[in-house]
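Could you show me just one protein sequence together with its fold in token form as a worked example?
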Amino acid sequence: MPTATDDPIAPAAAPPTDQDQDQPTTASLRVRLSESDAYYGGGVVEGARVLRLFGDLVTEITVREDGDEGLLSGYSDVRFTAPVAPGDYLEVHGRLVRRTRLRRVVELSAFKVISADPGTRPSAARLLPEPQLVCSATATTVVPREAVTRKETR
């Protein structure tokens, strides 16, 4: 099973500055899944919840790059590798890997870092010794022509 050290996507330490031009644009989130996220029997959270988190990262990266949220045109290579449950904490990372004039391609990964342990007691949880990859994907977003034109004339 891949771990965080196998994944080249690292969390962003701070918003990018002019000095960071050579560094890829990144974004990260850490979230706790709630009981309302449970969808399937046994309290399993649906994969669409992770994809919504990915969408938030793609939007942030596009805003950082272009000053516009852009429009998500699709995901590819989506892989769900482990289930997630209410009470789990996920770290979600995105990194811009390719850009054309109007398209941005972002690699995404989600890792479980804390696992709920309701079998021990209702509020029990445990820190995982290594982050566990639960989902990875690639997203493509399209930036409106007007946003690119405005940026080019600055």
Observations:
- The beta strands are 26-32, 38-40, 44-45, 71-80, 89-99, 103-116, 125-142.
- The longest strand covers residues 125-142.
- The chain has two helices and seven strands.
